[in-house]
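Hi C.,

You asked whether I'd gotten around to modeling the 231-residue construct. I have! Everything is below, sequence then structure, no commentary in between.
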Amino acid sequence: MRLYAGKSDGTASRFVSSTSSTRLDHIFFNQIEEFTVRGTSKDDSITILAGGDDIINAGAGNDTINTGAGNDIMDGGAGNDIMDGGAGNDTVIGGAGNDTLIGGAGNDILTGGGNNDSFLYDAGAIFYSAAIGIDSITDFTKGSDKIVLDKSTFRALKSSVGNGFSIGSEFAIVNSDAAAATSAAKIVYNQGSGELFYNENGALGGFGTGAQFAELTTNPLLSASDFVLRA
């Protein structure tokens, strides 16, 4: 099933799907305030563009969800979901399954849920703080979850693509923001606060064109093995 909807006046609409027997191949909405999928066990594709604070409950299945501007709430439910919050201060919940969570622009709240989840940072361009914001990762689990950094965004990284940092000096753990700003490492984690920084200019004062991009609210003891670099 393919479903398309658009409204030029920006008024709110609500769409509900309660069948588990019909796969939603692609749902495309423009100017929709709230969209809910309930009970489906299929692999759905949901895209919402333009403004509005949307609510998406994708249910079971391996779903792909992309939202535009607005402060959205997204719950992937069961299945291995790919969820992109787009612009706005979003709440993204992976639920059960091995999910990929992308906050996008804005200060987002990211909760992976159970299993092995990936928190992906890829602005589609060189790092720009406003295009990423500062996300709160609420339940990072060492040994199963990963923070994925795209090298097209984090261009100061010279480590090879893959798990961890092939150049060990590119990652460091410190205990203050001041130490983070003068570290020689490119990715710096403040263990005391849970703040994660991109330190583009290394040991020079400040972060160069980098900035804080995440806070791990449970303050896990991170290591290089908790990161994945991709091209």
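If it helps when you're writing up: Residues 2-167+216-230 form one domain.

Thanks,
B.
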